Amino acid sequence: QLQASGGGLVQAGGSLRLSCAASGRAFSTYAMGWFRQAPGKEREFVAAIKRSGSSTSYADSVKGRFTISKDNAKKTVYLQMNSLKPEDTAVYYCAADARFRVELGTNSYEYDYWGQGTQVTVSS
Hints:
This protein is mainly beta.
């Protein structure tokens, strides 16, 4: 089970840190990802991290502004979001990939478990 938190309302240029806490003992074996969905749009990939935290991947739209990290001891994955823009407004979802892929997944169907989402709103 995944529980996302940390969303809120922030002005453009501000920062937020999202957290996604997992239950169960398998967290360290999961690659983790963050996706987002804005109103009227499809869910899109934001960032992903390998199960060990050794490798990350980002959507071009967030590269250089967002950082994904993973703490296996705390069973938590984070998304640090800096220099936020109004177009970052969306519901953000964390997801777990339990299938030991070689490459990080960037598509929704590559993830097995999903959190409930947390709203991020960036005002201009």
